[in-house]
Automatic annotation (TrEMBL):
Name of the protein this chain belongs to: Protein GPR107-like
Membrane-crossing segments per the record: 171-191, 198-216, 236-262, 308-328, 354-372, 378-398
Domain CAND6/7 N-terminal: 26-151
Subcellular locations according to the entry: Membrane
Organism: Hevea brasiliensis
Coiled coil: none
Topology of this chain in the membrane: Multi-pass membrane protein
Signal peptide feature range: 1-20
Residue ranges of every copy of the GOST seven transmembrane domain listed in the record: 170-409
Keywords, in A-Z order: Membrane, Signal, Transmembrane, Transmembrane helix
UniProt superkingdom: Eukaryota
Amino acid sequence: MACLFLFPFVASLLFSLSFAEIRYSEIRSDDRTIIPFDEFGFAHKGQLELNVSDIQLSNPNPDLDLSKVGFFLCTQDSWLHVVQQIEDSEISCALQSDLIKHVFTFKNLENGKSNFSVFVVENDADQYTLVFANCLNTIKVSMDVNSAMYNLERNGNRDYLSAGKTILPRVFFLFSLVYIGLTGLWIHVLYKKRLTVFRIHFFMLAVVVMKALNLLCEAEDKSYIKRTGSAHGWDVLFYIFSFLKGITLFTLIVLIGTGWSFLKPYLQDKEKKVLMIVIPLQVVANIAQVVIDETGPYGQYWITWKKVFLLVDVVCCCAVLFPIVWSIKNLREAARTDGKAAVNLMKLTLFRQYYIVVICYIYFTRVVVYALETITSYKYLWTSVVAGELATLAFYVFTGYKFKPEAHNPYFVIDDDEEEAAAEQLKLEDEFEL
Ligand SMILES: *[C@@H]1O[C@H](CO)[C@@H](O)[C@H](O)[C@H]1NC(C)=O
Ligand SMILES: *[C@@H]1O[C@H](CO)[C@@H](O)[C@H](O)[C@H]1NC(C)=O
């Protein structure tokens, strides 16, 4: 089954961390040895502000070696070496490695104080993760962590978007303009061909509008984060439209796949069941997405939510393929039995194309984009976003073009020669099948 292709990206996703911005995290009685906070791509003038308060250790024994508890910055490459050093027993704690950049160890905590503030200037451009290490396996840590990582622009303003993502607001804005253009074009087509418009065409209009609004909010959301370090509510709008876009797009793929409204005016029971599975799963996927984005990788359940999201996404992608396969099967049978070979063959070709394109779209946006994200340097992370958006755009354009309302329905203007040729081809296909 095509879904098997989707699994390589499960592994890659687990390593991609979320956007860095001003972040507030609560750690409660946590005994993890390593807690990753945000990941951020520093340009040449990067800065980290870290304010930690309400620090409580479960075992405040004065003899503990608190130099083994603290924060540090580390690149992905050097992290692999640090892990190697620990495996080779050269060091016993990541904080002892010379490959990391110390931020603060709890040894430096002033007597009796439960809070500290540090400010780190990072001039080596690279992608860093802020990590908390607790190498004392006897204590649990509670604390409130406020962190902000940003780059300074030439004019001294702060840019809270990571080095490879700083042009994303512009990218999203440009794509939203493209979809606004497509919306206009589609309304024009609907008006011109209004006598042959089906209900599904209005549904397609809704899908494009949702996509345009989603991109517009994402552009505004990211540009707000870029300037201020937090989203100030724009993220709520963004999540709402993401949710509506996700539901409408998957529903559209199912509806087109079943041939609803242009092949037949009703849905069969099993097709309704697919929708009844896909829509609630999309709700779960969107909730998972919000949790993943908002908590960041420090959360205890971050990995769990990430897995839930992946599983749900894979199930949705597989589920939407079934109606198309059923339609193809029905059309093949109809082509053999009802004597209108040419009509059915045309529909059959269209549905087969659609099946291939849906698979390509799913594969590209789920696997290729994540592969790109993994292999590109942190400075060019925006390229994987652009690649994903281009694939999505191509998919929308293909769907709109192939299933547009037709003034002269080609299914009914077929002469005898074409009918014979089609019957001939069907016969050939049957022989291949056997
Ligand atoms: C720690 O907290 C105290 C009282 O809340 C405050 O006065 C002090 O400035 C804080 N110190 C640091 C280093 O943040
Ligand atoms: C950290 O504390 C300083 C001084 O109180 C404050 O100016 C800064 O905004 C704080 N940063 C974060 C990320 O909370």
